[in-house]
Design goal:
The chain folds into 2 domains: 240 residues, QueA-like (3-Layer(aba) Sandwich); 78 residues, Beta Barrel (Thrombin, subunit H), CATH 2.40.10.240. It is of the alpha/beta class. The strands form 3 sheets. The chain has a 9-stranded mixed sheet with strand order 2-1-17-16-14-3-12-13-15, with helices on one face. A 6-stranded antiparallel sheet has the order 5-6-7-10-9-8, covered by helices on one side. The chain has a two-stranded parallel sheet with strand order 4-11. It is found in: Cytoplasm. Belongs to the QueA family. InterPro entries: QueA, QueA_dom1, QueA_dom2, QueA_sf.
């Protein structure tokens, strides 16, 4: 499909620079039963049914942005995928100043060696020293806010809390699974009381999620692989929910992509442990999920293509036009949409 089909007008002032307070006071556009309703995230228990299951991504964002030098040259690195105990794939700012074997010095004595370069411009970095890389990043790195936020304000200490979900427990992401940012302990208690269950899986979100689609046709776009995991116990729970007539509702496109990667043609969800580069566009047949809670996405992005595959392109364009006109807040710190096809 032509990428231009997924374009729409979005005024810059619709991009949220801070999350709603409290988190579950964010607005929620509900698309269900052929209708569109304006609600709040705190209304979610009333929008679902007893027996439904919410699936959260438990990845934790790491301080994946680093500033350093190679000689006199300033080098910026955004880690996006772990490739070994001390090796990370990274997008490099000023990468033309790097060669294989160059040492990059970051803050507080942290350093890495540049190894191979991919066609997409990313480099493999091998971190030196003996301390675990997680400790090195805590010393030298900073929270990797999305570029559409970082370009408009300086990241600060508040983002260290705002940009983590309440489910974050498995470090490895360089971007938050932002749909889950809306949840609070109080909302989870209300969902539990309504008979709406929840479980977790893992997808370590990479910086490739922010890369623009440069191809003119979706068939020419290459997705970056991300590592995910679904345990056998979680797969069994999800299959049992559907067998009993409940719905599996992915919280965020990251959860959705792992579930769909783990689901066979027969609709049975299996355990999963590995990379996924699944690219969902209109025409895709969903096998493992029955609904999605997600934020509002960028024009021409792979994520807007995904929600268009779930609900239909024209319906999503109309929904986004309504959201713009009604002053919904977009992107990572913005409002939510509940999509029930």
């Amino acid at each position: 499909m032509k990428v231009d089909l997924f374009d729409f007008e979005l005024p810059a002032e619709r991009i949220a620079l801070r999350p709603a307070v409290p988190r579950d006071s964010a607005r929620m556009l509900v698309l269900a039963d052929g209708r569109t309703k304006d609600r709040q995230v705190s209304d979610l228990p009333a929008c679902l049914r007893a027996g439904d299951m919410l699936v959260f991504n438990d990845t934790r964002v790491i301080p994946a942005q680093l500033d350093g030098t190679r000689g006199e040259a300033r080098i910026g690195a955004t880690l996006h995928k772990r490739e070994g105990p001390r090796r990370w794939r990274a997008f490099i700012r000023n990468g033309r100043r790097l060669s294989h074997g160059d040492r990059i010095d970051f803050a507080d004595g942290v350093f890495a060696t540049a190894l191979d370069r991919e066609d997409d411009g990313s480099w493999a970095l091998e971190f030196g020293g003996v301390d675990p890389v997680e400790l090195l990043l805590n010393r030298a790195g900073r929270m990797p806010l999305p570029p559409y936020i970082a370009a408009r304000r300086t990241p600060d200490a508040q983002d260290a809390d705002d940009y983590q979900t309440m489910f974050a427990s498995d470090p490895g992401a360089v971007a938050a699974p932002t749909a889950a940012l809306h949840f609070t302990p109080g909302l989870m208690e209300t969902l539990d009381a309504a008979g709406i269950g929840h479980t977790t899986l893992t997808l370590h979100v990479g910086a490739g999620t922010f890369l623009p689609v440069k191809a003119d046709d979706t068939s020419h776009h290459r997705m970056h692989a991300e590592w995910g995991r679904i345990s056998q116990a979680t797969a069994d729970r999800l299959n049992a929910v559907r067998s009993a007539g409940g719905r599996v509702i992915a919280v965020g496109t990251t959860s959705l992509r792992v579930i769909e990667s783990a689901t066979g043609e027969d609709g049975v969800i299996g355990p999963f442990d590995g990379d996924t580069a699944i690219f969902i566009t209109p025409g895709y047949r969903f096998r493992g999920i029955d609904g999605l809670l997600t934020n509002f996405h960028l024009p021409r992005s792979t994520l807007f293509m995904l929600v268009s595959a779930l609900m239909g392109l024209e319906r999503m364009k109309a929904a986004y036009a309504h959201a713009v006109a009604a002053d919904y807040r977009f992107y990572s710190y913005g409002d939510a949409s509940l999509l029930l096809p």
